[in-house]
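WARN no homologs supplied; continuing
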Amino acid sequence: MTVPRFESPLPVLKSTASTLATDKLGVVAIVIFVWCAATPLTVVAGIVTTGFAVTGMVGMPLAFPVVGAVLMLFAVGFVAMARQIGTVGGLYAFLAKGLGRAAGVGGAWMALVAYNGLQVGLYGTVGAAVAPLLNRALGVSVPWWVTALVCCGFVAWQGVMKVDQNRTVLAVLLLAEITALIVFSIADLVRPADGHVSTYALSLGNLVTAGIGASLALAFLGFVGFEAAVVFAAEAKDPARTIPRAMRWSIVLIAALYAFSSWAMTVAVGAGSIVVQARENSVDLIFILAGDRLGRTVADVGQVLFFTSVVAALLAFHFTTARYGYALGLERVLPAWLGRTSRRSSAPYRASIAQSLFAVAVIITYAVFGWDPVVQLFYWGGAIGGVGVLLLLVLTSYAVFGYFFQHPEQSREAGRWRAQIAPVISSALLLMVAVLVLLNVPTLLGVAPDHPMVWIVRLGFPALLVLGTGYGWYLKTHHWDVYSKIGLAAKAATTPPLPAPRTAAHSTSSARQEAGRS
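OK structure emitted
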């Protein structure tokens, strides 16, 4: 018996204005969306240098392939289950199928907060990225929030356009920044510190130290977005083949590029000096090295691409977040009006606009209160969002095992490795990484151990999971028609609700209704 392919979750007629565009995205297109969310230049210029500076460790280059290997193992069972359930709902749909619909609601709440944190947080660095460029080119100083609002308007416009049009915009931005990273890294290796290329930073002993949790957390942030490949299943060409390939290629290429670029920086300044240089120069380190080796003009081009990298990430995370809102609106877990698409572009325009309005509200709030946009919005938002996605992956890995345990026939079709062994191993490894990350939250955020943000991060997402699961149980007892469609995503529009279970409480309620009618 063959493994079932992704089913199209879309009704035949598009006149309902609740369907996404189908058969639009191939492997390359989905890899582009994933890579734009991963923000190659932003990760290397920001997260990698921050990792060196905050942890004081030189083993960051090795953290990327280690995390990549864990995620590749996770992807084995994840993709196998995705072939079975074929949904546009994202990670929460996996929780609903593997751990129960109520847990799916809790996962949905976690996902919305995590991805909004990642997306909206990026607006905090837009001003910092563009300010030096405007100052050198025009001699003007523009408040960060003005640039952020302009970018928000651009993202909002792109969010209601056709998905394949977005692919073209993102492809151009992505190709430019990857090219810049490779050129910068090669230049670093051509002119190494002390005249020789050192592999010291690639030694395992430099990673396995007391600060390994913070290093793994920062490395994981570089991969956030790879899991979003399944969100585009309904819009993919031959999704049974496209989604697995896109996910695997995304993980491998991300790990290779980040490890190479971060190692090249240690070669350029010397493994013994990288921590000091990162602390002194922060995100400018990579551009200082480029200017020294390739000239100021090339460095300026790199800073322009740093800005476009952030914009590309804003677009990618916006698309993902909007599709979560769209799927939940179709299921009526969130207001049903979110589950509508544009008749012209088939984009989930209502969920897209709602996410953009939320971003505007956050930007204005930070501007009014004068909060630090780089540290308190960009860095904290990204760190919090990354922790949330990591915890979701832990739950999803357990959900994969739970799903195949509940469906023996599909487990046999997938094979023991995909359905049982890989999910168990990846669950244990991801849980270990998550524990290390939570233990190192103060280091990750750069705050004291008793800072309120430490406990917000440690307890916030578990609280969302509990509250969301509780709401799921409420739907089960009071709104069975909604509860029975949790996890169906786009199929919710055309699938009738399941028959309600005949529980004692249900029978009593029915008897009371009959008595009332009589």
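Residues 27-517 form a domain with the Amino acid/polyamine transporter I fold (CATH 1.20.1740.10).
OK
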